[in-house]
């Protein structure tokens, strides 16, 4: 499954460009691949193994699949599918749809390579593939806001790139290679090796920047809010969690382990992000900016779970990555629906929109409740695991903080839901109707996953999350 999920999307891009096909053809080809990729995780007999065997004769990568990578592949497949469907609604030309379809395929190839990587340099290469494709997608509309958001993303991401590349070079100097096993052997003696210590600090800082965590979050709100609607779904749903948080999990689990200093950094960074992101989200007036700062807060929960430094903490982090991918993608899809039907995103200009857009209003409420940790939705269970992991590891203060921060999450989401969907219908919205099926169908699917995972939590935990975390 590993090599095939990297090479097939790349080969598909070549096939779509030689000769160049229509945007509609590229769109359906990309959707078909995303669906096949999702199915191949659960049904390996679909042909990926045969292709992987053939490709392995010509290509050699330091990659391997495991339970953690499978969670990310499932998350990325779902998010890519719905984000491309959202993009089609907003694509004003055949060329734009063609470009988005190709760029998302390249991004998915990068994501697949990253989650399978067992080598620090391989991780760096695939992270940069994702970053370049993401920058182009953010700026694709060529509007001033999009170009500014993309430029900030490019500059700050480049800083992280330099840190990580320098770190990889230092690891090679200290360990004689960049494989996880080689670096891990050198890291065991990092207390007496300043080169390894500097390399660890640089690599972790680069990942925290990529993940948009406080205090490295300045690029995130502009990129999320100014990107085209479908790209916002992709960024918020999977990109930052893959290039930042997932890579951090892999690096800590495979290379450094969870010692006292690293856990302290994770706990402080996670706590700052949880509280800081929520406080800034409360005062935002733009629908997508609320969601952007909410993402900072939710990713902070994931890092807090890692700060516990236990297998339960890793399991909680993985579960919240999946849940956040689903409910945050749902929220960005619904912000796209509101933007499509009203032409604006200023939350103070709405009111009573739920009367005109009942599906969008209902699925938004489902996502809000899940993000706030309300049972029986999926977000409740992952937040509960995070609190339990922190408490059992002896970090009761951070566990209490995680619970109290959920009240802040509830505050800004209730405020947004009230201003946009509840109350008296604004006269300017009299002619508004429900969003097209290309937006409501993905919303219903994502809302259904949020409910189903919450209701089937024991099965999901037993057969999907705990095995991935090695429990």
Short description:
The protein has about 475 residues and is mainly alpha-helical. The protein has 19 helices and no strands. Helix 4 (about 65-90) packs across helix 19 and helix 13 packs parallel to helix 16 (about 380-390).
Could you explain how this protein is built, in words?
- Helix content is 77%, strand content 0%.
- With 471 residues, the protein is mainly α.
- The protein has a domain at 277-471.
- Helix 12 runs antiparallel to helix 13 (287-307).
What is the succession of H and E elements?
A: HHHHHHHHHHHHHHHHHHH
- Whole-Å distance between the termini? 23 Å
Task: Name the average pLDDT.
Answer: 86
Structural class: mainly alpha
Uncertain runs = 50-60
**Radius of gyration over alpha carbons?**
21 Å
Coarse shape: globular
The biggest beta sheet, please?
none
Enumerate how many helices there are, as a single number: 19
Percentage of residues in DSSP E strands? under 5%
Oligomer: single chain
Task: Indicate the percent of residues in helices.
Answer: over 70%
The beta-strand count equals 0
